[in-house]
Design a protein that fits this description.
- There is one protein chain.
- This protein is α+β, with helices and mostly antiparallel strands.
- The protein has a single domain (3-242), classed as Aminopeptidase, CATH 3.40.630.
- It contains seven helices and ten strands.
- It has helices at residues 14-31, 81-84, 126-135, 147-156, 183-189, 193-198, 221-224, and strands spanning 3-8, 56-61, 67-75, 101-109, 140-146, 161-162, 174-180, 200-203, 229-230, 233-234.
- Strands 6-7-5-4-3-2-1-8 form an eight-stranded mixed β-sheet, with helices on both faces. The protein has a two-stranded antiparallel ribbon with strand order 9-10.
- Strand 4 (101-109), helix 3 and strand 5 form a beta-alpha-beta unit.
- The two termini are 27 Å apart.
- The relative contact order is 0.19.
- Belongs to the autoinducer synthase family.
- It catalyses: a fatty acyl-[ACP] + S-adenosyl-L-methionine = an N-acyl-L-homoserine lactone + S-methyl-5'-thioadenosine + holo-[ACP] + H(+).
- It comes from Paraburkholderia fungorum.
Length: 254
């Protein structure tokens, strides 16, 4: 059985942080050949300047407790990738700053069962990320993806909207896009956001930066059987960052 964990970087268990960094390096540096400042191909982990602070990390663990997926969520009220690394992908004056809009990045998954079908899918972690963002009062997720990945999102059943500048260079194979995380989106995906959220084991006091409200842990079947618990209860809820235009992201968003 897989487990989904979530928390800010400092709140995740040290072994999870270690394996998450190694997984990200394997996927984004070794496999996708991203050129990330300060991270060499021979390094053992991949982190950047956006990983700390209020950023929330999702980690998927396989049945044998190996990291098999990751994603991170950042509020757009602070620094985030689209604004600070890829501003050329949006039009002048169109950069977003709203407590109801969060950015999804570093998304990758393999060997994780689709919550709808039980079959393994590279998109299986996405509904969990959407449900967690929704618990922070997010209405929309934004992100930067390659055009092939944008097509994968749409095939998954998402109404992916381009939010990028019409004047972006034609050589750029990455685009800025958004996904609504309203109830209608989950209905279309045949997923219940409450059930998804309840199956996430949360570390630390995860709260919306805007409201300050924290989300208490709730015992669920997934949480009850997770090896990462506190006593008898699950722990509480809580590019190249300059890889730039010339890079092609083959399987995930940034």
């Amino acid at each position: 059985m897989s487990h989904i964990l979530a928390g800010r970087l400092d709140d995740l268990p040290s072994d999870i942080r270690h394996h998450l960094g190694a997984f990200r390096h394997k996927v984004f540096v070794q496999r996708l050949h991203w050129e990330i400042p300060g991270v060499s191909h021979d390094a053992t982990s991949e982190w950047d300047e956006f990983d700390g602070g209020s950023t929330v990390h999702l980690v998927a663990l396989s049945a044998d407790e190996e990291v098999c997926g990751c994603a991170r969520l950042m509020p757009t009220t602070g620094r985030y990738l689209l604004r600070d690394v890829f501003p050329e992908l949006t039009g002048p004056g169109s950069l977003i700053s709203s407590p109801s809009i969060w950015e999804l990045s570093r998304f990758a998954a393999s060997g994780l069962a689709d919550p709808r079908t039980g079959l393994n899918s590279g998109m299986s972690l996405l509904p969990y990320a959407m449900a967690l963002a929704r618990s922070f009062d997010a209405k929309r997720l934004i992100g930067v993806v390659s055009r092939p990945v944008a097509r994968l999102y749409r095939r998954f059943g998402l109404d992916l909207r381009d939010i990028g500048a019409r004047t972006a260079p034609s050589t750029v194979d990455i685009v800025a896009c958004s996904i609504d995380v309203e109830a209608a989106t989950f209905h279309k995906l045949r997923c219940d956001p409450v059930t998804l959220l309840d199956s996430i084991t949360r570390f630390g006091q995860l709260s919306s930066p805007h409201t300050g409200l924290s989300f208490d842990s709730r015992r669920t079947d997934a949480g009850a059987h997770s090896p990462y618990t506190n006593g008898d209860e699950p722990l509480t809820a809580s590019g190249s960052e300059t890889m730039r235009a010339q890079a092609t992201i083959r399987t995930t968003g940034v």
